[in-house]
Amino acid sequence: MQTDGTKCKLGKWLEDTKEIGLAEDKIPALKAILASMRPNHTKLHTLAQSMQQKLTENNGDREVSQADLVQIYEDQITPTLESVRGSLHDISEVVAKRVASEKQLLNRKVASSNRNMLIVSVLALVLGIGISFFFSRSLSGQIKQAVDFATTLSSGDYSKNLDIAQKDEVGILAVALNKAGKACLWLMVAVGATLLISNVQSET
User: How many Å apart are CA 34 and CA 149, to the nearest integer?
Assistant: First the structure.
């Protein structure tokens, strides 16, 4: 029979001020329960000492001490033990409620995080589609400009210029078409000048 209240498992836990302090800080409701349980726990071990003393007084004779031991157990130990058990039950309920509350909070945070991720994913998808559509239309328009310019050149009009100033493939194509147009224009000028000179010489 353990007579030292600091040596049993519950007593060691109650004496651990650091762990008890952390528990009370995290779950404030434990403070009142533990405060009411400590004197009852101490009383249990004091009663155990009383029973041990009765045995000692009767030289360890249990039969002689039985009546006193039974009276101490039934009248004092049993109700005190029930109080300690009740406190332990209250602690269990408070901790269970706190765990359930923490779990609900965590579930809400997870649900909120999943919802935010879904919103961000949808926005990214919409933005990606919008950007793709914008660049697709822009590229289509530039290609159409290049085709129209090539058609203009093929019809013999070299006075136009393709105004696409960028450094990608479409820009390279625009530069090439502009050079081709200028080359054709200079060629036409050169041919015209040659014909003019030939006509002047033939007249003289």
Answer: 90
* CA–CA distance, 164 with 75 (Å, rounded to integer): 103
Helices (H) and strands (E) in the chain, counts: 6, 0
27 and 95 in contact (C-beta within 8 Å)?
yes
Domain borders along the chain are: 9-108, 156-203
pTM of the model: 0.54
- CB distance 142 to 136 below 8 Å: no
Residues 33, 114: Cα–Cα separation, whole Å: 39
Look at residue 105 and tell me whether its pLDDT is greater than 70.
yes
For the ranges 35-39, 51-55, 86-90, 116-120, which has the lowest average pLDDT? 51-55
Provide the H-helix boundaries in 58-164: 62-72, 78-154
Rg of the chain, C-alpha, whole Å: 49
Residues present in the chain in total: 204
**Lookup: tokens for 151:** 């058609």
Cα dihedral 194, 196, 202, 204, rounded to 10, equals -120
At 166 the three-state DSSP class reads coil
The two structure tokens encoding residue 159 = 């006075």
Residue type, 162: L
187, pLDDT greater than 80: no
The b-or-e profile of 83-120 (16+ CB within 10 A means b, else e) is bbeebeebbeebeeeeeeeeeeeeeeeeeeeeeeeeee
Whether 54 and 40 have beta carbons less than 8 Å apart is answered as no
